[in-house]
Amino acid sequence: MLQRRKISVLFSALLFSFAAQAGKLAIVIDDVGYRPAEENKVLQMPQAISVAVLPNAPHAREMATRAHQGGHEVLIHLPMAPLSKQPLEKDTLTPEMSSEEITRIMRNAVSNVPYAVGLNNHMGSRMTSSLSGMQKVMQALNHYNLYFLDSMTIANSQAIPAAQGTQVKVLKRRVFLDDSQDINAIRQQFSRAVKLAQRDGYAIAIGHPHPNTVRVLQQMLPSLPADITLVRPSQLLNETRHSGSRTPAVPVKPAKPRFQPAELCKVKQPLAPVPATRALTVVGESVSHSPLFSTLKSLF
Ligand SMILES: [Zn+2]
């Protein structure tokens, strides 16, 4: 009898630890619309893999439509001004733009990227760190019932305070998969996203349609741990733990960003250049070198 009770307690403990470990993982592939060949491979992946389409990319409409038809969630990948000097996409938002201008750009983006249910920033360290700039963005977003996924290209993004007083829900990226396009580095980042999802209950990872990123996803998605569920970002909107006041598990202190001119998402094809998002990584990296981060990391 005692033995049976012991087994039952052990079983409950196991169940509890399994439930505590279960995590939702959302993966978004940015910069879509320039490289259909590589992007089509992303659309062959599970439907929960989402895509963020650059509204002025040559294949924007086509890729958004194809993604939607394949059951993938579509986001608008809206170019926003970075702090560093980089080649910019057409209609890149700046904090100085008027509300009317931002509304016009948003309207075009919504029209060029059909089926979008959310929007995230392409670059944007300068724009997203401006409260007044982001307030104009949130006011415009409010008209379209789109959620905002903060790519977190700078630690002191103002997206959450700017969304106050609007209906716009804000999500935050946790991991960039391919700051380095080295295949082992991408594998490590993927594993990190999985661990964060297990530890915190959910995580959002962003990657780009680079051949090595596609390869890693093709290799690693089929063997995800059993306690990880792939989800669309919109499935995380009601996570109570997502409330704006929540302190991130790995604190991101407002940092002196060490901006580097390096580009994340270089386009291999001789089409228009896709400037990359590098700034966040930089912040991410400065955090990852902090003693606190090392301590947290050792807990995994
Ligand atoms: Zn981008």
UniProtKB/TrEMBL annotation:
CDD domains: CE4_DAC2
UniProt keyword annotations, A-Z: Signal
Coiled coil: none
Pfam families on file: Polysacc_deac_2 (PF04748)
InterPro entries: Divergent_DAC, Glyco_hydro/deAcase_b/a-brl
Signal peptide residue numbers: 1-22
UniProt protein name: Divergent polysaccharide deacetylase family protein
Species the sequence originates in: Pantoea anthophila
Species classification: Bacteria, Pseudomonadati, Pseudomonadota, Gammaproteobacteria, Enterobacterales
